[in-house]
């Protein structure tokens, strides 16, 4: 039995190291660009394209819904599909969609391209995460990928907001296209091939608790997307200086790089996954309250800087947990779906709450969602 109490870890897979591991990390960063870019994305759609919070949230939601649908199909066929070829095709298709989006300004055209780009991205990311789940130590590889995502966030937040100021909203979509091109090339050159034990190639129902853990992760990502999408909007509404807000966004990337993922890797053998996933939503809710109610920059900025870190730390443990609960790789291959189901609904829900009620409504709603997330994690890990 494993330390989680859900059975042995997946059979170790040779080859997921060096260039192969690097390709997976690059794919992880590109596929989860929404986790890094949400506030810039939504902010640019509002400030540069003239959309309201609801329309801006809806565009990001369409991208994420496309990713969810594609991820569900890809995860179901993870053990039968040509994983490398479809990963390359997915990232290349997403790059094309974003490149075309840079030449559009109307809602209808951008909506279609967001949907298509999300579907292509979700397909590729599913094969990346499913392959990561077949590593000898999925927790550690996912933690390394999380650190890579943090570094990516530092670079992105330091460069792209300034490019948008200089060149307009098209720079947002061109930056996304460039990121997807890099991921496509990395996958083409070094995507690792994995094989399953004969008894793991197919599978019927998931092990007890898997779907509850999946639901818990989705609810956490809903909370993050609902609040984090409007961090920049909240900062402007509170009257904080634009440069101070940009500095906070850069700090978010720095914290995510040096904090949660490396810490999760170091504490893998010292913290029970069940305790981590039960505590994560509660901490996230407390930070959401502070973020939406704070009126002083000295409180708002530090809370914003660590808000995403809670999600990264908690999900690293949840990823390793799911890899052990379902050794076929299908559950972790559905990681984009479980992440983006919540993320898809979060931006539009946040926009509706702000327009229909107030910024404070975001924090209060986050508390309710966190309670549901804790309940799901408790049910899913009751055998641990």
Automatic annotation (TrEMBL):
<feature type="transmembrane region" description="Helical">
    <location>
        <begin position="359"/>
        <end position="378"/>
    </location>
</feature>
<protein>
    <submittedName>
        <fullName>MFS transporter</fullName>
    </submittedName>
</protein>
<dbReference type="GO" id="GO:0022857">
    <property type="term" value="F:transmembrane transporter activity"/>
</dbReference>
<feature type="transmembrane region" description="Helical">
    <location>
        <begin position="171"/>
        <end position="194"/>
    </location>
</feature>
<keyword id="KW-1133">Transmembrane helix</keyword>
<dbReference type="Pfam" id="PF07690">
    <property type="entry name" value="MFS_1"/>
</dbReference>
<feature type="transmembrane region" description="Helical">
    <location>
        <begin position="107"/>
        <end position="128"/>
    </location>
</feature>
<feature type="transmembrane region" description="Helical">
    <location>
        <begin position="334"/>
        <end position="353"/>
    </location>
</feature>
<feature type="transmembrane region" description="Helical">
    <location>
        <begin position="206"/>
        <end position="231"/>
    </location>
</feature>
<feature type="transmembrane region" description="Helical">
    <location>
        <begin position="140"/>
        <end position="159"/>
    </location>
</feature>
<keyword id="KW-0812">Transmembrane</keyword>
<feature type="transmembrane region" description="Helical">
    <location>
        <begin position="276"/>
        <end position="297"/>
    </location>
</feature>
<feature type="transmembrane region" description="Helical">
    <location>
        <begin position="56"/>
        <end position="73"/>
    </location>
</feature>
<feature type="transmembrane region" description="Helical">
    <location>
        <begin position="303"/>
        <end position="322"/>
    </location>
</feature>
<feature type="transmembrane region" description="Helical">
    <location>
        <begin position="21"/>
        <end position="44"/>
    </location>
</feature>
<keyword id="KW-0472">Membrane</keyword>
<feature type="transmembrane region" description="Helical">
    <location>
        <begin position="243"/>
        <end position="264"/>
    </location>
</feature>
<feature type="transmembrane region" description="Helical">
    <location>
        <begin position="85"/>
        <end position="101"/>
    </location>
</feature>
<dbReference type="InterPro" id="IPR036259">
    <property type="entry name" value="MFS_trans_sf"/>
</dbReference>
<dbReference type="InterPro" id="IPR011701">
    <property type="entry name" value="MFS"/>
</dbReference>
